[in-house]
Amino acid sequence: MSDKQESPRVTVSNYTKIWNLDWVIYALEGRKLPVPANLRVVGIFISCLIFWAIVGKILFFIPAAYTYAFLPGVSTWLIAKQKLDGKAPHKWLWGMILFWMRPKHLHRYRKVEHNKHYRYGSKVVYRTKRERA
């Protein structure tokens, strides 16, 4: 055991979140909404509504109440709650698509072209076991 006293923890304030403001809609056409709507959630709902409307046309046996109300609402709730690597799912997916399209062989942040096929002139010798003396 050491007799050294531990230094107290220090809290450092970080004010970067104050610049990331959420856009919230409180009224439409002068009419107050019953619940304030976050613009990101509204966008997710509209995209889910379009998706389920297309799926509802293909799968004609799904009732309209499910297609236009229940399924978009549930999928919006699930997507809005998820965070992948600290990002919203659509931003994460966009970053992954850009990563997959990016060239992987770089030299000083520029793409490297590999047009030459190299062959060794002699046998390549390597060790398979570690030998101790």
Percent helix range:
25-40%
Strand order, biggest sheet? Answer: 1-2
* H/E topology pattern: EEHHHEE
Shape: extended
Strand content: 5-15%
The main sheet comes to:
2 strands, antiparallel
Q: What is the β-strand count?
A: 4
Would you tell me the structural class of the helices and strands?
alpha+beta
N- and C-termini, Cα separation: 41 Å
Uncertain runs are: none
How many helix segments? 3
Q: Averaged pLDDT, please?
A: 84
Cα-atom radius of gyration: 28 Å
Task: Please characterize this protein's 3D structure.
The chain has 133 residues and is an alpha+beta fold. It contains three helices and four strands; from the N terminus they run ββαααββ. A hairpin with a 2-residue loop joins strand 1 and strand 2. Helix 1 crosses helix 2. The longest helix has 20 residues. It is extended.
Q: Summary?
A:
By secondary structure, the protein is of the alpha+beta class.
Features:
4 strands; 133 residues; 38% helix; two-stranded antiparallel sheet; single chain
Task: Annotate the secondary structure layout.
Blueprint: E1 24-28, E2 31-38, H1 39-58, H2 64-81, H3 89-101, E3 106-107, E4 110-111
Helix pairs in contact: 1-2
